[in-house]
Design a protein that fits this description.
By secondary structure, the protein is of the alpha+beta class. The protein has a seven-stranded mixed beta sheet. The chain has a two-stranded antiparallel ribbon with strand order 6-7. Helix 3 links the parallel strand 4 and strand 5. The N and C termini lie far apart (about 65 Å).
Length: about 210
């Protein structure tokens, strides 16, 4: 192959590799943890805090719901085509792998789509086979949901109009301690074994 052709081919390969690297960075950044903002005096990011929402039985609840148990908190919506059911199915597998420790852990699914996610819709959705047993669904007014999301540094946005709209949202699961304070994060699609190990290690540290 002539030297000029070799150089042109090499240049094209470098350009493709650079483009792939940029795409990879964009995808990773899109799925990474959002900025957690301020850091508390203990060195912990200020994730979590006051919220007033409604559970799947129509009862008002607040942040005291988290007291006394380890909580896995996830922000999503029932019309989610992939990420939410995948995460909930993974959390069900984690629940199973925890064995006796599962009694100390509760799963909390907070809707970021209050327009469609009524308490009854949340109740029906979370009763599906393959989701964590006893999962708690929370919804509320748009203002209440926005306040809860801000407290957890969760991000979301409505995409599209009409009945077919969807929601973009952050994908991490927050591990909250029995005191209702943030302990750790589970990234999206880690797999049940790795997620269980992270949770168990976090629980062991207290």
């Amino acid at each position: 192959m002539p030297r000029r052709s070799i150089l042109l081919f090499a240049g094209a390969c470098i350009a493709i590799a650079a483009a792939l690297a940029i795409v990879t960075i964009v995808v990773v950044n899109a799925r990474s943890t959002p900025t957690t903002g301020e850091i508390g005096a203990s060195g912990q990011p200020l994730i979590g805090g006051d919220f007033q929402l409604t559970n799947q039985d129509g009862r008002p609840v607040d942040q005291s719901l988290l007291n006394g148990k380890w909580s896995l908190v996830f922000f999503g919506f029932t019309y989610c085509p992939e990420f939410c059911p995948t995460t909930l199915a993974e959390m069900a597998a984690v629940q199973q792998q925890l064995g006796d420790k599962a009694k100390d852990v509760q799963f909390v699914f907070v809707s970021i789509d209050p327009e469609r996610d009524t308490p009854q819709q949340m109740k029906d959705y979370l009763s599906s086979d393959g989701f964590p047993k006893g999962a708690i669904g929370l919804t509320g007014t748009p203002e209440q949901v926005a306040q809860a999301a801000r407290a957890y540094r969760a991000v979301y946005e409505k995409v599209g109009e009409g009945e077919g709209y969807t929601m973009n949202h952050s994908l991490q699961v927050y591990i909250m301690g029995p005191d209702g304070r943030f302990r750790n994060l589970l990234g999206y699609n880690l797999g049940p074994a790795r997620s269980t190990k992270i949770l168990e290690d976090t629980m062991a540290r207290g």
